[in-house]
Structures are given as structure tokens and as C-alpha cells.
Amino acid sequence: MAGASPSDVEECTLETARRQLGSYAAPVDRTDRIPLSVAVGRVLATDVTANDRIPGADIAVDDTVFERGHQLRPADVGLLKAAGVNELLVRQRPQVGIVPTGDGLVERDAGPDERVETAGFTLAQYADRWGGKVTYRNAVADDAPALRMAVQRDLTRDIVVLTGTEPGDTLREVVRKLGDIVADRVAIAPGHETGLAVVQDRPVLLLPESPVAARVGAVQLLRPLLKGFGDAPLSPHPSRQATLTEPLDTDDSVRSFVPVAVEGETATPLSGTDLATATRADGWVTVPADTLAPAGGDTVGVVDWDYLP
Fold first, then answer.
1. Rounded distance between C-alpha atoms, residue 47 and residue 197, angstroms
2. Which residues lie below 8 Å from residue 308, measured CB to CB, with a gap of 6+?
3. Which of 90, 206, 268, 298 is the most buried (most CB within 10 A)?
4. In degrees, to the nearest 5, what angle opens at C-alpha 232 toward C-alphas 227 and 234?
């Protein structure tokens, strides 16, 4: 996998982060032959031609129904069935390893001084729906040899995602010794502690512990990266207009993403970076850097991040 030469920098913009990661997102050239019944969402590796004539669709035998690179929708598979197509050659989904890190993390039944791991588990669900083939690992404690083994284990994947990290911690030092830190911070909030790395030509996304910050980093960086590897279109999230019930509190030095609860035509900002805040959000308001934060009564665009294609 070829890419630009990484450089160790303290901070980069979101656009630079996407460009740096995208330079390593060579479309996966591995293929699968699959039945039509499980083809929705997959990307065609070859043109698909009709085996049967479809008079109502003006399609004859051997006509091309869909071209290579098309991402199949539910209605598409109905048309292919009518055309006598039963199997398809599709690109394999890009492989992503998701590794939660931190002391005291457990999968369930947390005891004293423990907490159930949720950030990595939630991201695994998103990555699966975004087209990735996910390996979700058990949490790894803040121990250098264990972290090193965890990172090396998933270098067979196309992408590695590590949660629970921030600049200067043990994990960043481990990654720096294995490869290159492209940026220790990304100019976004929440999620300013998000980092980018490259290890053995594999892009590594370093996400904070906070569920809200990890969600921001994943939507803004992991989703486009998965689409690049999958050679799939990066469709925009749907949005709607709403009136703010109160002003947004943002830092104008970074691009801010504010979760809001929507009721009717109004949007109320949500505070906090915990799991409850991430779950209660009906949408997100983006405020670019060097921009005055919207005030109460202003109309804003609310983007639905839970729209998953």
C-alpha cells in the first residue's frame, strides 16, 4: 500500500487529517463471490450483465445492468433477480481492527474500580454498517508490551483503530516506536486529542476515551477512510433545519461538532462527552473554525450521523 511520507506534527486540520489518511486508502482488490440475497451494500468488482430479458426495464440478454464499482441498493437486487442473476463478484469489505485500551475496562459485569468498555464496541457497530469487516478486540491495559502486541496483531488489517488514548500516553509512545505519528492532535472539538499514525503502511486512528469524542473522530475520519478502501461512494448524511433554543458554546480555534436534541423544529444543545450524551443526540451542528458560534434563535443545519450508509 503506497502513501505519502508521514511526518510527526503536533496538530493538523480535519481536512489535512482526511487527506493524510486517504493517501493510504488504496481500494481493496480482494473479491468475494456471494449470493444475491446478501448483496445489498456491497460494491461490484465487475460489470453485471443480464442472463434474462426484462421487457419492462428495456434490458436484453447480455446488456450491462450495473457497472463495476456500483454499490448495490435494495431495489437493485430485485432488478438483478429479474435479469436472472443469482451470484455476484464483489469487492471484499475493508478489514478494520478496533482495539479499546485503558486500565479497568471490562466487557461486562464491572466491579469496583472497573467500567464496561463502550467506545470501541459502539464504533465496531458503526464500522460494520459503513462497510467494514470488523474485528473487535478485548480491552488492553495500559502496559507497553501488551499494547505493542495488540497493535502488531492487527497490522494484517487494512485499518487499525485504537480508543482510549491521548497525546503523551503509553500507547502513543508504543505507536511512535512501531511507526510514525502523523499528527498528535486534530483541530476538532470534541476530540482534539484524536491522533493519526502509520505503522507498516497501515493507517492507525488514535481516538480518545470519551464516547462523544470517539464518535466525532470516527464519523469524520474512519467513515471516509472505510469508503476509500471499499471504493464506495461517501454519501452525505441527511440534514434538516432547526432553530436553536440557546446559544452554542464553541472554541473558534477548531472545528466544533455540537450534539443536539431535536423536538419539532427546535434544537437544544447537549452538554457532556459521556455515553448518555452521545446516545441522546438526534443530530449534530457543525461550526467551522474562526466562525462566530450561532446564538439562541438562529437557524442551523442539524446533520443525522445515525444515517449509516
1. 36
2. 126, 129, 130
3. 206
4. 65
Which is it for strands 239-244 and 266-269: parallel, antiparallel or unpaired? parallel
Residue that has been written with the C-alpha cell 467551522 in this structure: 288
DSSP lists the bridge partners of residue 100 as: 163
The DSSP H or E segment spanning 91 is strand 87-91
Quick check: helix, strand or coil at residue 305? coil
> What local confidence, expressed as pLDDT, does residue 277 receive?
85
Instruction: State which amino acid sits at residue 37.
Output: S
Q: State whether the Cα torsion 37-124-255-251 is positive or negative.
A: positive
Please report the pLDDT score of residue 274 as a whole number.
80
- Mean pLDDT, residues 133-158: 96
For 303, other C-beta atoms within 10 Å of its C-beta total 18
Give dist(CA 8, CA 259) in Å, integer: 31
pLDDT in tens, 152-209: 999 999 999 999 999 999 999 999 999 999 999 999 999 999 999 999 999 999 999 9
Model confidence band, residue 2 (pLDDT cutoffs 50, 70, 90): very low
Q: Looking at per-residue confidence, does 4 or 200 come out higher?
A: 200
Give this prediction's pTM: 0.90
Region of residue 209 (phi > 0: left; psi between -120 and 50: alpha; otherwise: beta): alpha
Alpha-carbon distances of 136 from 62, 117, 123, 157, 235, rounded to whole Å: 42, 11, 9, 12, 25
**pLDDT given at position 55:** 84
Q: Which three three-digit cell numbers place residue 299? A: 437557524
Query: Bridge-partner residues for 186, per DSSP?
Result: 12
Angle between helices 223-230 and 14-22 (to 10 degrees): 30
Per DSSP, helices labelled H in the chain are: 14-22, 74-82, 119-129, 144-153, 170-178, 211-217, 223-230, 275-280
In sign, the C-alpha dihedral spanning 140, 141, 142, 147 is negative
